[in-house]
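Notebook, bench 3.
Goal today: get a predicted structure for NAD(P)/FAD-dependent oxidoreductase from Mycobacterium hippophais so we can plan the truncation constructs. The sequence was checked against the plasmid map this morning, with no discrepancies at the termini. Length recorded as 487 residues. Pasting the sequence as submitted so the record is complete.
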Amino acid sequence: MTNSVVIIGAGFAGLGAAIRLRQNGIEDFVIVERDSAVGGTWRDNTYPGAACDIPSLLYSFSFAQNPDWPQGYSGSHDILGYIEWMVEKFDLRRFIQFNTEVTALSFDEAAGVWSIATAEGKTFTSVSVIMAQGPLSNASLPPIRGLDTYTGKTIHSARWDHDYDPTGKRVAVIGTGASAVQIIPELVKTAAQVKVFQRTPGWVLPRLQYHTPEWNKRLYRQFPFTQSVARKGVFWAHEFMALGLVWPTAMTTALQGLSRLQLRRQVKDQWMRRQLTPRFTAGCKRLLVTNDYYPALAKENCKLITWPIATLCPNGIRTADGIEHHVDAIVFATGFDVCKTGTPFPVTGLNGRSLGEEWSTGAYAYKSTSVAGYPNLYLTFGPNSGPGHNSALVYMEAQIDYAVRAIRTLNRWNLKYLDVRDDAQRRFNEGIQQRLAKTTCNSGCRSWYLTDDGFNATMYPGFATQYLKQMAELHHPDYHAVQKATQ
């Protein structure tokens, strides 16, 4: 049986797409999920202290608002609970095929359908495909020499081993990014010693955390429009931050000053402050939002190591100064394999063209969702859709609605497929890269936003409002519309 749509992934993007399809009267779709449960990155990231650095009001869908968030910034448990609530509320479980891992996509031009192969040997066919597997789905280990020689316990932040008790242990943490600054304060509470191996310090801003009072939850439940108003207020507050985080301005300098003030307040040792002060423009790397990281580093049982790691050895980590640090466990807070080049599995389009080959030097798309030569294929978290200042779900929601609009157009016009034009895609990406050249994320530091040769396939160079405006219209002249053959 040919489905109207196959959705790859049952995380935020996949479930959001399913909800919007159902709300638009499209029911003949299936969600394929390689795991045995929903949740995506929030299912996988259950490390101690795991939380979101975007306020919960904004880290949720506008079409599925949750009035019962317990606090301003929610932990992974509450976010996963919200995801599971969406599954039940919108009756999505019956559409999901669990333990089904996609291994290849191939487009049949004559039939106008995609063939979706899986590791389990099952094949799906569909008119359209929404790729919602997410960029933060494959844990990344750093290319450190001697990785296979270490004999102690190893844990990746995205694959946390809850059976391992760090109490009284000597623990090393490699990495000082968004996951690490949440893990380290928790480890310091119980471990005998925590050694933090830092490659590059980041800009840290305080988190304005609060607990949601019961009267506030009742208000949102009884009068949902009040939550929508509050959500818009949070949105515009973050939108204002773009003036300092997307482009280097006087506000960037002010944000850096606020970060330095927090560092001075929370770290009294002058030498440690120097080691924790970034030497790049705020916004060039992901901003860190935490109240607990600096105080944890200042604890007696915590030590910051800034010498580069030379190699792992059987008993621990040897740094470039020749010191061997013996530890019982190593935590790799080293992020994910974000697909800036190539594809997570082979994708074959018109005339046998390979998306992996075309993206070998850097991913690109039209409006981050469509790629010329790959009809009826829609990306979420596609190239150049990353926000540096606002909620990823705001951008994701716009991508989902764009894909649903295109799918409805296929049905309304009785089309075989829609394929974005090469010239429209080229013009769009030339404009994106020109705009990126003026942004903080292209200001010279090394980050996961960029490929090894400096191409930015990740970030969007503007306000969220600009992105939403870009996605609000399916501009038909930018697509080849191929009609179905008449009987």
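Residues 258 and 334 are 26 Å apart (CA to CA). The mean pLDDT is 94.
Flagging this for group meeting.
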